[in-house]
Amino acid sequence: MNFQLTEIAKVISVFFVLMTISSPKLESAILLASVEFVDKPATISDMRVGNHRDKTRLVFDVSHPTNLTYVVSDNGTSLKLSLPKAVWVGTKQINSIVGGNITKVKKGKDPEGTNLIITSHRPIRVKNTFFLQPNKDKGHRIVVDIAKSSLSIAKLSKVVTSNTNMGLGIGTSAKTEVAQAINSENPYIQRAFPRKTKKNNSSKKTTKSYREDKTYAIQNLYARGSIGLSMFNETSSLGGKSDFDAEFEPGFILNGAIGMKLENNFRAEGEFLFSQSSLKQISGSSNGRTHNTENVSGDLSALALMGNAILDIPINSRATPYVMGGAGLSVISLNDFQASNESLVDDMDWVLAFQFGGGVSLELDRKTDIEIGYRYFESQDPELSDVTTTPFKSNFSGHNFLIGAKVNLN
What CA–CA distance (Å, rounded) separates 14 from 169? Predict the structure, then answer.
């Protein structure tokens, strides 16, 4: 009985291959589950997108291996993925799953399966498809790698199988090439079944697949740097012998960050920033003297280490809006404040700080984005001492306008 099932499965495989190469205008293929799963209904609990240097990776979390077919449109900007035995049960909005080469995802109506239409603003192709076995807290997964394409390349039809598909006589490699380029010699089933493989080495291949998961974070790292205009709000200092307000000239801000692209268009980053503005005017009293003058010197500076969360908002364009928020530690420094040649304060304090804002990222090429943004920055009230060591409290907030670049490190 097992022998008969094996032979039937082989015939079905060849049939699908012949079907996929019969249409020269479309790139199409099928990913076959093993015999034990082929007719068993499955569920899809999640889908996520990861951006890599040479591809966009779409990962399906499935209850068990299940068949998947795909067809690429003749102009290359549309891809149809079909999982005829898998029903979507996830809570995520399908149309929110975008990024990289994927600009829009639409789900078709199929009560017994899942059909997805993926569109891109550039020609795309399916670079690879394969199964991943359960690993630690992750279950069965189907991976579809989508890459940029040229319409002049030869179309390929491929069939791949899970590592458990030994009954079909197919080895454990992630994919088995069945037909060669359409315009090559003898295109029809030159290798209807794969050549004899070496001794089963599935454990090593599985380890390699898991290693790809572990390197996901490294492949999504980026570095960012920017410069801009810093405008500190007027500060009020009160306590001890001090009761004065200070105004500041427009200053500058420098910052840099290392970040990582996460799922669902989120990013996380660690940021270093430094801003500084010169003192413009002092109004009030300090050390028993009253001042209302622009005959002042000194500056206000902020040095901060922040952790930020950013949400990109894809709009099917090279320009991508984003919103962000962050928190961290900042050292606020009142550097050599003087009014009418009289020293007032020269002190600093470490305080908690937060910021929020937004902006736009403009894609220049595959690795580089230009970012333009705004951020509001505020800290806890620093506790400082005047020149007589009498303590007082001040406040600190400001507006930052930035322009810079973000570079993918993968």
Answer: 13
Q: Classify 210 as helix, strand or coil.
A: helix
**Same domain (yes/no): 229, 204:** no
Residue 210 has pLDDT above 60, yes or no: no
User: What band does 366 get if pLDDT is binned at 50, 70 and 90?
Assistant: confident
Pick 3 or 338 by higher pLDDT: 338
Question: What is the extent of the structural domain holding 187?
Answer: 2-216
Separation between Cα atoms, residue 213 and residue 162, nearest integer Å: 17
Q: In what order do the strands lie in the sheet with 86-88?
A: 86-88, 42-51, 56-62, 140-148, 124-132
Strand order in the sheet with 78-83: 104-107, 114-119, 78-83, 68-72, 27-32, 157-161, 176-179
- 17 membership: H or E segment, kind and range: helix 2-21
| Of 240, 246, 272, 244, nearest in space to 258 by CA | 272
Across 73-220, the runs of DSSP E, i.e. the strands, are 78-83, 86-88, 104-107, 114-119, 124-132, 140-148, 157-161, 176-179
Tokens matching residue 365:
């090429």
CB atoms near residue 83 (< 10 Å):
22
pLDDT of 226 higher than 60: yes
- Scan for tokens 């579809």, then name that residue: 144
Same domain membership, residue 143 and residue 277: no
Alpha carbon separation from 269 to 138, 266, 305, 309 (Å, rounded): 25, 10, 11, 7
Amino acid at 101: N
CATH number of the CATH domain containing 130:
2.60.40.3500
For the segment 241-245, the average pLDDT, to the nearest whole number, is 87
Which residue type, as a one-letter code, is found at position 293?
T
Strand pairing of 42-51 and 86-88?
Answer: parallel
We report the CATH number of the domain holding residue 235 as 2.40.160.20
Rg of the chain in Å (alpha carbons): 30
Count of positions (residues) in the chain: 410
Q: Would the pTM of this model clear 0.70, i.e. be above it?
A: no
In a shared domain, residues 335 and 320: yes
Q: Rounded to an integer, what distance in angstroms lies between the CA atom of residue 207 and that of residue 215? A: 12
- What pLDDT was estimated at residue 280? 94
- Domain boundary pick from 216, 242, 265: 216
Confidence of residue 6 (pLDDT cuts 50, 70, 90): low
The number of folded domains in the chain is 2
